[in-house]
Amino acid sequence: MKVLINSLLQPELLSYLNMEMTPYQLSNNTPLTLSPNFILPEDKRPDLSEVLPSDSIPIIDLNDRDIDDGQGPSPLVSKISQACEEYGFFQIINHGVPKELCQKLLAVVTEFFQLPPEERAQYLTKDHSKQVKVFNYYQKYEGIGKVTMWSETFSHPWHSTEDFAHLLPTNPPQYREVFAEYARAIGVLFDRLLSLISQGLGLDKDCLKRRIGEKPGLNTQANYYPACPDPELTMGMPDHNDLGSITVLLQVEGVTGLQVIKDGKWLTVDPVPDAFVINLADQTQVLSNGKFKSVEHRAVTNKFLPRLSLGMFYNPNYDTVIGPIEDLIDEEHPSKYRKYSFKEYMEEFYRQQGKRRRVKEAFELQR
Ligand code: OGA
Ligand code: NI
């Protein structure tokens, strides 16, 4: 016992414990502690004992047979189309993006979140049209007010043109370079995925990409979830649907947090080594006239380890008109959504800020 106490009092250990006990400091200078503004009302808590394991979320090998032999969809296309219909979520392996690159990226992004808060604070803004920003998710609850999520998010464009690179951090020093390389690789992957999903709908390979349109809005969101002393009381990211076409999400290995809805129950999406999580977003649901699903998901916190995820988004630009693709509409499948510009869609999104968002529903045709 004495030995144990002695060893506990060693200065290095004390400083380590102290480091572990010091709450993460958000960029707005708030410490992340279990104070009331981070604690969810009882009926909004994640109820982790009810969450199911992720066994069933499809893991698709992009090296699977993908030959168009004129006999209908290839085995790969069939798998993708089934996953898009049933889950709206799947993981991909053998996707062509080098493992080392993903690791380098997660390392620089982690370093970013570990910068002193005053350095990250230069990216804080209330203006949602700002392209490069740090923010904290929150939800408003009646009678309680604003509850801040247990996370911090850094978002910026990812297309590899010159016009935004100068806005990205110079600290960590490798941030720009690693990001540019990652963005190039993910650009190639998006093209492949959009083509596979188009084929999964029985459409030409380039159909979805064409409909999402010229000059897509490409942005990324890095989410940092510090360890939380009691994950039952907090949420890292509230339930939401992604807004664009599809999302390519990279998550650190060994720390769970992402969950999706399937048949009314939450399922965890555990990290699979060297995989990306792919989820369909709202515009793909609308373009497919509801055949493929944009599914609700959320991120819960972890008691022992911080978690990092990075989503790459591919959105239409504001002027693009979105609506169900005509080839998918017939008497049996009447159009479920009205046409709208993506600008209208985003305006509706911001109108629902802080609330439980139901953006798609606002564009459904009544019948
Ligand atoms: C997102 C998202 C989930 C996660 O950024 O849209 O859903 O696992 N992230 O962090
Ligand atoms: Ni999401």
TrEMBL record:
<comment type="similarity">
    <text>Belongs to the iron/ascorbate-dependent oxidoreductase family.</text>
</comment>
<dbReference type="InterPro" id="IPR050295">
    <property type="entry name" value="Plant_2OG-oxidoreductases"/>
</dbReference>
<feature type="domain" description="Fe2OG dioxygenase">
    <location>
        <begin position="216"/>
        <end position="316"/>
    </location>
</feature>
<dbReference type="Pfam" id="PF03171">
    <property type="entry name" value="2OG-FeII_Oxy"/>
</dbReference>
<dbReference type="GO" id="GO:0031418">
    <property type="term" value="F:L-ascorbic acid binding"/>
</dbReference>
<protein>
    <recommendedName>
        <fullName>Fe2OG dioxygenase domain-containing protein</fullName>
    </recommendedName>
</protein>
<dbReference type="GO" id="GO:0016491">
    <property type="term" value="F:oxidoreductase activity"/>
</dbReference>
<keyword id="KW-0560">Oxidoreductase</keyword>
<dbReference type="InterPro" id="IPR005123">
    <property type="entry name" value="Oxoglu/Fe-dep_dioxygenase_dom"/>
</dbReference>
<keyword id="KW-0408">Iron</keyword>
<keyword id="KW-0847">Vitamin C</keyword>
<dbReference type="InterPro" id="IPR044861">
    <property type="entry name" value="IPNS-like_FE2OG_OXY"/>
</dbReference>
<dbReference type="GO" id="GO:0046872">
    <property type="term" value="F:metal ion binding"/>
</dbReference>
<keyword id="KW-0479">Metal-binding</keyword>
<dbReference type="InterPro" id="IPR027443">
    <property type="entry name" value="IPNS-like_sf"/>
</dbReference>
<dbReference type="InterPro" id="IPR026992">
    <property type="entry name" value="DIOX_N"/>
</dbReference>
<dbReference type="Pfam" id="PF14226">
    <property type="entry name" value="DIOX_N"/>
</dbReference>
